[in-house]
Design a protein that fits this description.
Layout: H1 3-8, E1 20-27, H2 38-44, E2 48-49, E3 55-56, E4 61-66, E5 69-75, H3 78-81, H4 83-95, E6 98-101, H5 105-111
Antiparallel strand pairs: 1-5, 1-6, 2-3, 4-5
Length: about 120
């Protein structure tokens, strides 16, 4: 079963408790993926600059660190808000044979800093 099929059968991404996935910088064969800044590059594709000219990551696609390793935290809701970006991220991970898991998502969320400006929204 490929990564996309495994991800889509777990939960409905339309529900408020949408499934979250961690894309690790480790290939399926166990080797480290290069370049080392790939996480920042991919997350920046969904980011915007705030009024203070600082980059603000999307709630659906952001960086995180798990056990000292930079990873991407991908919320399945990105498929609704920006389907082309969602497809690009999944294709990138699959083409580069990166590990995709939902088992580490809760740990990733706990270790991820809150998104700047969240407290000011709504």
């Amino acid at each position: 079963m490929n990564s996309t099929a495994a991800m889509t059968q777990d939960k409905d991404p339309k529900k408020p408790d949408s499934e979250k996935f961690v894309i690790q910088g480790i290939k399926e064969c166990g080797s480290k993926f290069r370049p080392s800044d790939w996480v920042d590059r991919i997350a920046a594709l969904g980011a915007e600059y705030g009024a203070d000219r600082r980059l603000r990551y999307s709630k659906e696609l952001r960086t995180t660190t798990i056990d000292g390793q930079k990873c991407l935290l991908l919320d399945a809701r990105l498929k609704e808000t920006n389907e082309s970006l969602y497809k690009m991220v999944i294709c990138f991970a699959e083409e580069n044979k990166l590990r995709i898991t939902s088992k580490m998502a809760k740990k990733a969320e706990a270790q991820t800093c809150p998104i700047d400006g969240d407290k000011n929204k709504d």
